């Protein structure tokens, strides 16, 4: 069971996540205390939600590990940023197949 939460994810992290999605690997998100609120929606487990709450209360950041299964679920989250990244990743793969010199 997942709970949707809003966080802030930097453009650099989004590029890293896009690569992980296209490679089919797990994702690791480092969120600073300031990033624990924002407009990017991710689905987290109860354990991850507890980590986020504890970090927010303590005024610290936290690292969240998203498994492949969880990343797949996040692809379906309405309002989430991962579906957008997946679309961009598939477009980059398609373009690289058409023109080998293409660098996303």
Describe this entry's structure for a reader.
By secondary structure, the chain is of the alpha+beta class. The chain has one domain (3-98). It has four helices and four strands. It has a two-stranded antiparallel sheet.
Number of strands: 4
Strand order of the largest sheet: 1-3
How would the global form be characterised? globular
Q: What average pLDDT do the residues reach?
A: 77
Number of DSSP helical runs: 4
Helical content stands at 40-55%
Regions with little confidence, pLDDT below 50 for 5+ residues: 86-98
- The run of helices and strands is EHEEHEHH
**Quaternary organisation of the protein chains:** single chain
Over all CA atoms, what is the radius of gyration?
A: 15 Å
Major β-sheet, in short?
Answer: 2 strands, antiparallel
How many domains, in number, for the residues?
1
Strand content: 15-25%
What gap, in angstroms, lies between the N and C termini?
Answer: 34 Å
In terms of structural class, how would the helical and strand content be classed? alpha+beta
Quick synopsis:
The chain is of the alpha+beta class and about 100 residues long. The chain has one domain (about 5-100).
Notable features of this structure?
104 residues, alpha+beta, two-stranded antiparallel sheet
SSE arrangement:
Elements (H helix, E strand, L loop, with lengths): L2 E5 L3 H13 L3 E5 L8 E5 L1 H13 L3 E5 L1 H7 L7 H17 L6
Antiparallel strand pairs: 1-3, 2-4
Helix pairs in contact: 1-4
């Amino acid at each position: 069971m997942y709970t949707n939460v809003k966080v802030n994810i930097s453009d650099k992290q989004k590029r890293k996540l896009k690569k992980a999605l296209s490679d089919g690997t797990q994702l690791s998100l480092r969120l600073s205390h300031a990033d624990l609120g924002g407009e990017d929606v991710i689905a987290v487990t109860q354990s991850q939600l507890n980590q986020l709450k504890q970090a927010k209360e303590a005024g610290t950041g936290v690292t969240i590990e998203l498994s492949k299964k969880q990343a797949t679920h996040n692809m379906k989250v309405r309002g989430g940023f991962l579906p957008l990244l997946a679309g961009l990743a598939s477009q980059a793969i398609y373009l690289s197949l058409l023109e080998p010199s293409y660098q996303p």
